[in-house]
């Protein structure tokens, strides 16, 4: 109205030009934006703090907000759009504005009643609830509250039903708000009321309680539906696939979602389909033939039926993005897919493809089907439009062909975890954003052309035989590099890199494990925002420099300095630290207490002295606490028991602790591994351990515990390892009190105690995990979920399923039921008072590698059935009353006289006394096992070393940390839709050191 009035006045004054001119000049300086709307915008924006930049916005340009100033026209502000006629604010776009803080229910934003578009995506609103007042924007057509932010999602709580009042909505995006929920009634209202909706994005919104049928009545206008990571279960409605305008359908990572794709009469404009990690059965040739408009197809980790090996697919000339990763495809890689000139994304990682990458200089390899001589595939040109090439986790060999260094559009080249050889070539273009070559067999120098890759953010060249000096000048121009992994290249010299001071200003994740460095790199002085740092397994000596305590003071969450020669650490200033590994150094002094948010803390194998401070109990989030192999003394703080709801692994072994074990273990205990071996602990075991239903490893060996056998432990369903050796346990073992005792027990060591009575025949009958030999092949690992694993490493090879009751006062006969434990690797009943014969049923233990029955009162002949124990490497039957001829053949030809000494009735080889007319001439043993090969102490003595490791969001450990790895932290880069965003998250995860 104001503009119409202005034009009318000007028209009436045309005859007076000067007056018209002055009037126009006066009005042109008047702000178009209404003052109350300008104030509302400023008040809204100023209610937040502005944080540092985050990775997920790296591909967006931050809208500069310098133009947001009082007294200026808000219609000219960045991210603000006004109606050209009325001056009302109709659109606000604050994408990636780094806003931090909660959105208050009475925020001035809700006074902008004329809004038609609102975009608050990629900010950090700290779990704010979505106010019902969002439903008051009656004219709103586009609402984007995407919570894709670090460190937490923006919005939480229930989606208010008032959102369904926005009847004009065309686009709704509530994705990546992990703590947000949509209840069934609200979802049904959304689906039924938003009849103009063309785009609905609800990725990562919790809808696990919602039936897929809630989407039955979606608008026929819908063009895009994205429901990834929603926890949907059951059958997806078939009619969605027949919506007349649907072009984009994302259902990936709903693991329990099933359904069926149309097999005929499927007329659809669908251009992008993503079904990765769902339960849909996929007939790939049928799918391709039906979807004529398809351009993007993401089928990672799917259930394929029929003849679906991609090697024999017809040319997919219309496809621009194809993901067939982690499907266990094998054979030759379908290189003909690269014939498609429009192909930009190809992901074939995580399969079993073999062979070499094709070399264009000698024409591309032809791959022929064994079923059809005419079904051949070949490629003939450089895929010049390729942006992403993912071939990791296959069996590819040979060298990296030169054409891969000459693709001007290539941004992601992911070849890690193959068997590639040769040198890394010179890159001819600077387009690469990520180069991942980890864990191949490459050698030679790091190419100088890497210095030209000015867009590079992720570089991984670990676990190779690279050699030569890495000059710091290679990294001078790599200002955008945020993740660098050069670990485990023993021939590579990084000395110049260590002493450089003006490189890698934006490094977030740095891994230089096993890199022969002797100093903490000086360039870290300027790395104020570093988040993950691994300098383990180097030769860093002395005290941690004071300047390093300022590095990443507010950002560092993962620090690994293990396996160095550090002597002092002092105060730990990193307030956001979650993973801290100081293992195997020379640290002295009292125990440093990490920040309150710590999840993983290991300072084992150092020279820490003094007592465990009670302040350690303030670590309310700690999952893994390893203080083993130090010189800690005094008692275990009673309050440690209060951490049992969070602690998964507690390792205090090999210290000088005394007193009793804390009894304050509450219901809901999450402990899986508890190791106190090698201390001075006395008193009984606390029966409150029965609350730890997930306990897998329990090691109280080599203490002074005075108690009877804790029979209540047999009720723990997951217990795998029970070590009570070298204590003051006494009494009889008796019969089990439960119907199925110790169902998962693999190792039980009660040796060097004062137990007496008969061996527990009924117990041996129920040790199910020791009976199934086929289920226990290979290395035995414990705690095998996505978080922690515990490996049992013993002195003798293969001792994974063992029973050691030696050095007690057991009497009676050896139960025949022992012969049912066919998975046994080791059996030790030595130094007891056992009588009777050696049971022939021991011949059933075909996996047995050592057997010690020495120093008892056994009599009779050695059962000939023992000759069938072809895995037996150690045998000790000495100091008994055995008689008769020693069996011959197989492994028995390898045992020396020491295996049988002090049995005066035995005769034959290898004893010196012959049997009857036998002159004692026996074949020479096929091999000789030296006594020094094993460790003995009053009979067979074996050590168990329990090492706790996290998998995943921890790096640099022998079996990996909790990382982040596998499973999986989100690398918040949103380059384009869907799973490819999930693909690039791998780099964030690898850089953080986590692997699922």
Automatic annotation (TrEMBL):
Cellular component terms (Gene Ontology): plasma membrane
Alphabetized InterPro entries for the sequence: Leu-rich_rpt (IPR001611), Leu-rich_rpt_typical-subtyp (IPR003591), LRR_dom_sf (IPR032675), LRR_N_plant-typ (IPR013210), RLP23-like (IPR046956)
Range of residues in the leader sequence: 1-22
KW Glycoprotein (keyword) present: yes
Membrane topology: Single-pass type I membrane protein
Subcellular location(s) of the protein: Cell membrane
Highest taxon listed in the record's lineage: Eukaryota
Keywords: Cell membrane, Glycoprotein, Leucine-rich repeat, Membrane, Receptor, Repeat, Signal, Transmembrane, Transmembrane helix
Chief location: membrane
Name recorded for this polypeptide: Leucine-rich repeat-containing N-terminal plant-type domain-containing protein
PANTHER family: LEUCINE-RICH REPEAT RECEPTOR PROTEIN KINASE EMS1-LIKE-RELATED, LEUCINE-RICH REPEAT-CONTAINING N-TERMINAL PLANT-TYPE DOMAIN-CONTAINING PROTEIN
Domain Leucine-rich repeat-containing N-terminal plant-type: 35-83
Residues that span the membrane, as ranges: 940-964
Protein family: Belongs to the RLP family.
